[in-house]
Structures are given as C-alpha cells and as structure tokens.
Structure prediction request, 330 residues.
Amino acid sequence: MERATPPPAFASTSNRRGLFAENEPFAYGWLPPRDGHEVFYEECGRPDGKPCVILHGGPGGAINPTMRRFFDPAKWRMALFDQRGCGRSRPNASLEHNTTWTLIEDIERLREHLGIEKWTVFGGSWGSTLALAYAITHPERVEGLVLRGVFLLTERELRWFYQDGASFLFPDAWQKFAAPIPPAERGDMIGAYHKRLTHSDRRIQAEAAAAWSQWEGDTISIRGPEARPSKFNEVDFAIAFARIECHFFVNHGFFPEEGWILKNVHRIRDIPGWIVQGRFDVVTPMEAAWNLKTAWPEARFEVIWDAGHASTEPGIVDALVRSTDQALKR
Prediction:
C-alpha cells in the first residue's frame, strides 16, 4: 500500500500544476423528462476526445466552469450535468424521485444519449460517493475513477460533520449553524434542519438554508471563510443545496445498508483509480479515503498535506490534474 508520508520540511510547491485554460461548452441541452425532472447537461473539450463524466458535489450543488478545467480540453470529451433539482435542471430544489438510484439512472441515460460506450468518472465529495455507487452498479461502463475528498455517506461521517466532531474545531461557525435550532432539538441536527428545509413557508426554508450552507462554506478550506463559494450567498442556490443535501442525509443516501460502498468495492477493484485527499479536510475527513484505499489497494492514493476539502486548493488542483493526465494514458 502506498503510504501517506509527509513532504520534506519547507518543500517547494512552485512546480505544482495549475488548472487548464477556461473553455466553453460545444453542446448543451436537457435530457428528455423523467419522473417530472429535466436534467441539464453540457459537453466541453474535444468532440472526438476521450470521454469522461464529471459529477458535482452536494448533494444539491451544481456544475460550474472550474470543473471543466481539471481535464485537458484538447484531449478529453467532458460531459457535465446538474443533478436533479440542481443548477439549471428543472424543477429547482425538487425532492421528488430524487435519490442516489435515480441519479445513477440519469448518468446512464446521459451516457446513452451521448452515444458513449465507456467513460472515466470524476467526482469529489458527494461526487465521489455518486461515482463509486455508479461504478459499483455499472462497472462495465467505467474506464477509470478519479476521486477527491472521499465521502462514503456513513452514519459516522454524518455525525462528525453535523453533530459532534467538526464543531470542536469550529465552535464559532458551529454557533451560527446551531442558532436556528432550539436547544431541545439539537440532539438531531440533521432531523431538525430537515423539518425546516421542507417547511411550506419559504422564509423558514431560506433561514435554515442560509445557516446550513454557511456551515459548509466556513469549514471547506484551510484558507478560511474567504474560500467559501460565492453561490452559497444566493438564496435560490442555498435552498436547493441545503434541501437536497439534507434530504439525502436524513435518508442515509438511500443505500440499502450502512457501509454499502465499502462492502461492494470488490466490484470495482479492476478499474484504474486515483484518490486525492486533503490531510486537513474537515468536511470529509481522511478516514473515509483511507478505508477506501485499504479496501481497494490497487488504487493510487495521494494525500495533500497543505489542503482541506476545497477542490481549488493548489495541492488538490495539482494532484487532480496529474491524475486526469495519467487516466488519459490508460
């Protein structure tokens, strides 16, 4: 097993790779409606390039232009889509027929719609969860897996971030997160937030969504709150993000049993894999990535010692760009 060894003291970071140049979609559209959802997608890069699908985080996030820049646009054919209820998919913030399994169906529908036989799957945070679940379900369609900030959606991980754990490191941010919830309900923060995020009064939803989103934004990077994505400040985005994320978490990711991903890793061990993990990731701590690597020793595993959770931290960018270059050659 590759070991997570620290870098030499005062090691230079000047030779780190950066993001590829900005690039615009060459095609976009919506998949035909299913279950009342219209899923938005876009294609970027080279139309005859090596195919990949890029999965955004959350659940409840959305695609953005930076996500295209981890792949060489002269060599890759990139497909990105807004998951149900997210971004430009319609209807916004909808929880109906919105589960891990319906998202996996959408990935397959997109693959078939684009005429792709097999592709590399890229995902960070919740995107890593969805990538792993998709690969386990459809291993014959996956050529490679590039994962960042691994999240296995276990009860242990949820309790760490939303109950007891991360709050010890960020008591100031936690105080803001807890503020909308009466003390009597704080023994189950996810349940308390779910009640408010599904309330019929949009004002109550908005208040809860703002606090939920700020908590994640305040803890996402070792660079501090200034690294918080600006979209977290947009009411519509925050409501969709918080509602859908809490919906998935209160339902334990809709997995049939606790630890489902690790119990089924044997189905993907023949697929080339790259795992990139920030050592000081508070949102998805390294234990999950370590457990995944232990169960999947064939995967390449790289720990970034000066990074947290954000995909835009320099060490994470460098490792992901090198990983997609290596995946290109496989």
